[in-house]
Amino acid sequence: MRHIPGRAACDQILCTQMISTPSIPGNPLELERQVCFALAVASRTVIAVYRPILEPLNLTHPQYLVMLALWERSPRTVKDLSAALQLDPGTLSPLLKRLEAVGYVERQRDKTDERALAVTLTEAGQQLRDEALKIPFKVVEQLDMSFEELAQLNQVLHKVIAKATR
């Protein structure tokens, strides 16, 4: 091994820092231990569970999220929807166009603010809610988890989101 000037001092500082910081048992860089990896894989696999459930309703997962927000409150401005869904308006706009094309929503200028675009559920969009009520039960069945387990997971995920965005 080649001698590097000051290396002993660096090694001593590094060891001191490692001793004074909380240690993580095992390899902290192991892929399976990474929260980001688990979240990414869980997201992809859970969305894959939704895909065949949403297909008969002529919805993609992102469109389903838009519809959920509109079933909570309609009409909503694009700005409000964008904030609720944590989506950039440029990402939201094509979703709204497709939902409008299938007849689930209408977009028009907001009556209270001509600069804003309001999104309203159509009759077909409102009726779709009745079919959508079955979705959570189908997801629970597919995941073979209880509502309680999924509620706990949801609570922990919202805590992670809050801590990561503060």
From TrEMBL:
<keyword id="KW-0238">DNA-binding</keyword>
<dbReference type="InterPro" id="IPR036388">
    <property type="entry name" value="WH-like_DNA-bd_sf"/>
</dbReference>
<keyword id="KW-0804">Transcription</keyword>
<dbReference type="Pfam" id="PF22381">
    <property type="entry name" value="Staph_reg_Sar_Rot"/>
</dbReference>
<protein>
    <submittedName>
        <fullName>DNA-binding transcriptional regulator, MarR family</fullName>
    </submittedName>
</protein>
<dbReference type="InterPro" id="IPR000835">
    <property type="entry name" value="HTH_MarR-typ"/>
</dbReference>
<dbReference type="GO" id="GO:0003700">
    <property type="term" value="F:DNA-binding transcription factor activity"/>
</dbReference>
<keyword id="KW-0805">Transcription regulation</keyword>
<dbReference type="InterPro" id="IPR036390">
    <property type="entry name" value="WH_DNA-bd_sf"/>
</dbReference>
<feature type="domain" description="HTH marR-type">
    <location>
        <begin position="32"/>
        <end position="162"/>
    </location>
</feature>
<dbReference type="InterPro" id="IPR039422">
    <property type="entry name" value="MarR/SlyA-like"/>
</dbReference>
<dbReference type="GO" id="GO:0006950">
    <property type="term" value="P:response to stress"/>
</dbReference>
<dbReference type="GO" id="GO:0005737">
    <property type="term" value="C:cytoplasm"/>
</dbReference>
<dbReference type="InterPro" id="IPR011991">
    <property type="entry name" value="ArsR-like_HTH"/>
</dbReference>
<dbReference type="GO" id="GO:0003677">
    <property type="term" value="F:DNA binding"/>
</dbReference>
<keyword id="KW-0963">Cytoplasm</keyword>
<dbReference type="InterPro" id="IPR055166">
    <property type="entry name" value="Transc_reg_Sar_Rot_HTH"/>
</dbReference>
